[in-house]
Specification:
The protein is of the alpha/beta class. The protein contains seven helices and four strands, in the order βαβαβαβαααα. Helix 2 crosses helix 3. It binds zinc ion. The site of zinc ion has 5 residues, from loops.
Length: 226
């Protein structure tokens, strides 16, 4: 890791990537993944922890809630220095339900609203929750806590269809020999996944994981490098 950001004439970034999401561990995990793909973003990612309740919202409610997040993102950017703009906004939320036709419809509805209002944003709606992404990397988990082991029945699965990935991690993966997984382990898990080179070889599938990376690629092409 170089630790170097993009060249900054004033010493401050003139554009920032904003990550919105209620859960600090989830935001931090996204930051780790983004910085792995684009090391030049180091020091240019800021976070907002305001409520994100978009997946059940429709119509005027959805419009207002997206607007509130965008306004907050612009305010946070401005605090980085006058004239700092939001290069792109990532909005994280857990779907809290398994993958299926509803997921695609909900994602489309919210993503279209974000796009309509800003043009530069991505809706990271994890199925069922971000812990499902960790189950794609069974080889990384023992590097966080040695005794953690993903049972065979959860290997090479569509992890977006496992109803309760968090309790799989707390119960089945943690077992009785190691300490139990808690939500605050999430950033460490993703740090191990990226640092030990597992990122490009997920074992299993999860449509929200695939979609996230498609968005990240598009982002690099069209948003913060333009
Ligand atoms: Zn983007």
């Amino acid at each position: 890791m170089s630790g170097r950001g993009r060249p900054r004439r004033s010493g401050r970034p003139k554009e920032v990537i904003v990550i919105a999401g209620e859960d600090r561990n989830d935001r931090e995990s996204l930051r780790i993944l983004l910085e792995k793909r684009y090391p030049e973003l180091r020091g240019s990612i800021v976070q907002i922890g305001d409520p994100v309740r978009l997946h059940k919202a429709t119509g005027t409610n959805l419009t207002k809630r997206v607007r509130a997040i965008l306004n907050k993102a612009e305010g946070v950017a401005e605090k980085q220095g006058p004239g700092t703009r939001v290069a792109c906004l990532y909005v994280h939320e857990d779907f809290d339900a398994v993958d299926g036709p509803d997921y695609a419809a909900v994602h489309r509805r919210v993503a279209q609203e974000i796009h309509r209002q800003s043009g530069r944003g991505h809706y990271v709606l994890a199925v069922v929750e971000m812990e499902a992404w960790m189950l794609l990397f069974p080889d990384a988990l023992p590097h966080v806590v040695k005794a953690w082991k993903v049972p065979a029945k959860y290997l090479r699965r569509d992890t977006g269809r496992l109803p309760d990935p968090k309790s799989i991690l707390m119960r089945d993966v943690s077992g009785t020999r190691g300490r139990r997984y808690t939500e605050s382990d999430a950033p460490d898990v993703f740090r191990v996944i990226v640092e030990q080179g597992h990122l490009d070889s997920p074992q299993g599938t999860n449509s929200s994981w695939t979609r996230f990376w498609r968005d990240v690629e598009l982002c690099g092409r069209e948003h913060f490098r333009t």
